[in-house]
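Fill in residues.
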């Protein structure tokens, strides 16, 4: 069975990010489990439609390429993912060929903890005047974006999925050409793709370690490091630390972030930096990348 692991890195910034922090560990994973690594650096669609929205949508066109028919299984991975090969296993193992293998965003790492992570994340955003859509339930995630999914209890995290050109090309194209994200709230193709796959009963749930989202784990277990430098408390704390130790609190905070990321890395197979890619350089400092 021929397998490919594919990502999209369009633009110098994203190519550099991928090459610096991802390429080596991705290639190691591909070598371990017999994948071909494909990094797309040019847009698959250059139409007016494509120009009106994020390149993230173009992951839905990977099965429409002539070369995709050469593969039985294709694994899509966003370019802000670090793979932990020490604890890795083949992400396609056990996924039926006619299903799309995904992680449930609202069960990461459990439903209760995910809800807590959202509550803490929203609290941090409120303090810093960050605009967002409140989606404490899976149903509201859809309805807030104009999608009739109030009755749904799950949301796929579309940054990583297992699919097949033979079975999923048509539904991916349907989402690409029939939906938009003009309702706001970000997440690009994710709401529509999640809705269509769940309604069609095409989802096979993967363990959350295959899409371990850093921002949610941090907000659930390490909320004190969210926007820490912007708080009045942090400024006071910094002065105290400097008087007691002669060191800046930023140094201590940086070490805490590195320790936090190392802990998350150890729990992950695919460590996803969605909405927090600025933390990726800390992985080098933690000395955990090949």
């Amino acid at each position: 069975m021929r397998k490919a692991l594919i990502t999209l890195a369009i633009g110098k910034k994203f190519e550099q990010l991928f090459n610096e922090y991802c390429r080596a560990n991705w290639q190691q994973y591909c070598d371990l489990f017999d994948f071909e690594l494909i990094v797309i650096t040019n847009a698959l669609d250059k139409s007016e439609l494509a120009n009106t929205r994020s390149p993230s949508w173009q992951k839905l066109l990977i099965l429409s390429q002539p070369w995709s028919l050469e593969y039985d299984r294709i694994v899509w991975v966003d370019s802000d993912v670090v793979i932990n090969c020490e604890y890795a296993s083949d992400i396609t193992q056990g996924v039926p060929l006619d299903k799309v293998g995904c992680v449930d965003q609202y069960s990461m790492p459990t439903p209760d903890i995910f809800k807590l992570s959202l509550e803490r994340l929203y609290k941090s955003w409120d303090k810093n005047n960050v605009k967002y859509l409140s989606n404490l339930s899976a149903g509201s995630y859809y309805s807030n974006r104009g999608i009739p999914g109030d009755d749904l209890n799950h949301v796929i995290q579309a940054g990583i999925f297992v699919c097949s050109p033979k079975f999923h090309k048509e539904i991916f194209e349907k989402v690409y050409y029939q939906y938009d994200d003009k309702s706001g709230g970000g997440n690009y193709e994710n709401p529509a793709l999640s809705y269509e796959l769940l309604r069609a009963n095409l989802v096979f749930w993967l363990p959350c370690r295959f899409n371990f989202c850093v921002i949610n784990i941090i907000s659930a277990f390490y909320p004190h490091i969210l926007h820490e430098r912007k708080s009045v408390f942090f400024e006071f704390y910094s002065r105290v630390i400097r008087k007691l130790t002669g060191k800046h609190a930023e140094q201590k905070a940086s070490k805490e972030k590195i320790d936090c990321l190392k802990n998350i890395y150890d729990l992950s197979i695919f460590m996803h930096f969605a909405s927090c890619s600025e933390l990726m350089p800390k992985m080098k400092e933690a000395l955990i990348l090949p």
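Residues 3-280 form a domain with the Spore Coat Polysaccharide Biosynthesis Protein SpsA; Chain A fold (CATH 3.90.550.10).
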